[in-house]
Amino acid sequence: MAINGEGIKLIKDSEGLRLKAYPDPGTGGEPITIGAGTTIYPNGQKVKKGDVITQEQALDYLAHDLLKFEKGVDLLVKPSLNDNQLAALVSFTYNVGLEAFKNSTMLKLLNENKFTEAANQFERWNKAGGKVLAGLTERRKKERALFLKPSTTNINTTLSSTIDTSKKLKILEDTFLKKEAVQSSELPNSKKKFIKAGSQLDYLATVKEGNHYLVTLANSIVAEDEVSKFNTWYIFNNALDLDLDGVPESKETLTPAEKIIDYMKSKNYKVFTGENQSNIVCLEAINPNFKLNNNTPNVFNDLRLIIQFRNGRPVIVSNEVATVSPGKYYTYNPMNPNGAAYVIYGQHTVWRMGFHNYKKDHPALVQVSSIKVTRDKNKDFSRTGDKEYVGLFGINLHHSFGQPVNNIGKASAGCIVGQNISNHFKFIEILKQDPRYKSNKNFIYTAAVIKGNEIF
Questions:
Q1: Which residue range forms the structural domain that includes residue 192?
Q2: Do 201 and 171 form a contact (C-beta atoms < 8 A)?
Q3: pLDDT range class, residue 272, cuts 50, 70, 90
Q4: Cis omega before residue 42 (within 30°)?
Q5: DSSP letters of 4-55?
Q6: Which of 21, 105, 157, 187 qualifies as a cystine partner to 51, CB 3.0-4.6 A?
Q7: pLDDT at 163
Q8: Is 118 helix (H, G, I), strand (E, B) or coil?
Q9: Domain presence at residue 160
């Protein structure tokens, strides 16, 4: 059984969403925290001072963390819980930790079926570093109230329970319901469920998070087991159509992919619609949720996308935090006396699959024909007023060598650089599945560089 919408909202409201690492408010030090309460990244590394992440990463880390606490509560609590009780306990353990919960009087009382007495334990846990914190006191009150709030469901409730299932979603293309907001290929079968195009499912609540919807379903065909009813899953935005009041959602609002493709067509850019054919699009000054940012210099604050077509509709299959601008180091120490390079806005067909700086462990799209750039001779981190040049400049699409989001460093002297190394390798693998590359290893790729504020 998964945490419900009220529980997720309680956690988000309590933790906040901070994109720069900060010390624990109770201890003034460890554990260093980031995002919505994340202290350890999915790769097992601890959050460190100075770490910076994107909003999309923060939500991904939260989704990953919640799985651990849902499972922990399920294992530790022996009696059946309704969805509100589970949600309150997941919020509680997300804050205090499963080990503390395991040794608590609260758990002892729960396993003795003394639920009222157990609820009274919440408000005792309002201290950090030996000090009572107002924020913790308020959070414990909310958790207690949610725990005691009557629910229409229990994990032993029959599937004919009288619950409003008038809201429906329609699956537009073959896809997966996922426990984490990542590509389905990255998840084991235990964390995803395949669902066919055309399926219609009842749902109770939904929250849009980046390129996914977090949806709480009420339908036995997606139950994690025979008695579980409420299931919260991530579904890729473009794979579903929500029905808010029994009427399909209006299509007047275009998806980000549709907006980008419409813009490209208006500019007479090439748009590739064949199966697995990739449209590479780089958006300047856009966050992963497609909101504009202030384009701060020396920060990875652009996007590098791959858009493909599914059943005639454009779908974003890769969404990377990236930079289309050189960093501070090469702006002040340019490799060319005329200044660091900026690829001009427009579409360019100049890249072939290869290796950055000829290093076999760094696959990249390598420039193989002339491209037009401007050069920032006055070192003002801007294209405005700069002279244009055409030539072979080694403008590649590669990764950042592990640079943090807030410091491009030496990662770019003008190349289009993906910040996350793992995501870059996925970017390359998707491009290698393009049938044009499969049939011709010398295939020349096309990419567009676009000002984000011209679309969003």
A1: 168-243
A2: yes
A3: very high
A4: no
A5: -HHHHHHHHHHH--EEEEE--TTTSSSSPEEETTB-B-TTSPBP-TT-B--H
A6: 21
A7: 30
A8: helix
A9: no
Domain boundary among the residues 243, 275, 300 is at 243
Burial 345-362 (b: 16+ CB within 10 A, else e): bebbebbbbeebeeeeeb
What's the average model confidence in pLDDT over 232-242?
A: 72
CA–CA–CA angle 94, 96, 100 (5° rounding): 120
* Domains of the chain: total: 3
222 occurs within a structural domain: yes
C-alpha separations of 112 from 25, 105, 153, 300, 335 in Å = 34, 11, 21, 52, 71
Largest Cα–Cα separation, the chain: 76
Q: Which residue has the higher pLDDT, 5 or 82?
A: 82
Residue in 6, 15, 284, 320 annotated catalytic? 15
Q: What is the pLDDT of residue 250?
A: 35
Reported as type and span, the H/E element at residue 164 is none
Contacts of 10 (CB under 8 A, 6+ apart): 87, 88, 91, 139, 142, 143, 146
Give CA–CA dist 145/85, Å, rounded: 10
CATH number of domain containing 108: 1.10.530.40
Whether 36 maps to a domain, the answer reads yes
- DSSP state at residue 248: B
CA distance 443 to 384: 33
Q: What percent of the chain has pLDDT over 70?
A: 86
Is residue 248 assigned to a domain?
no
Residue 220: which pLDDT band, with cuts at 50, 70 and 90? very low
- Cβ atoms of 33 and 14 within 8 Å: the answer is no
Query: Would you place residue 248 in the very low, low, confident or very high pLDDT band (cuts 50, 70, 90)?
Result: very low
Residue 15 appears among annotated catalytic residues:
yes
CB-count burial class (<10 Å; 0-12, 13-18, 19+) for 306 = buried
Task: Please write the tens of the pLDDT for every residue from 277-296.
Answer: 999 999 999 998 888 888 88
Distance CA(444)–CA(31), nearest Å, equals 48
Summarize the confidence of residues 327-333 as an average pLDDT.
Answer: 95
Note whether 70 and 97 are same-domain residues: yes
Looking at the DSSP bridge assignments, the partners of residue 128 are 131
Residues 117 and 30 both lie in one domain = yes
Amino acid identity of residue 163, one-letter, is I
Q: Using CA atoms, how far apart are residues 171 and 213, in angstroms rounded to an integer?
A: 12
- Domain check: are 304 and 187 in the same one? no
Residues 321 and 442 in one domain: yes
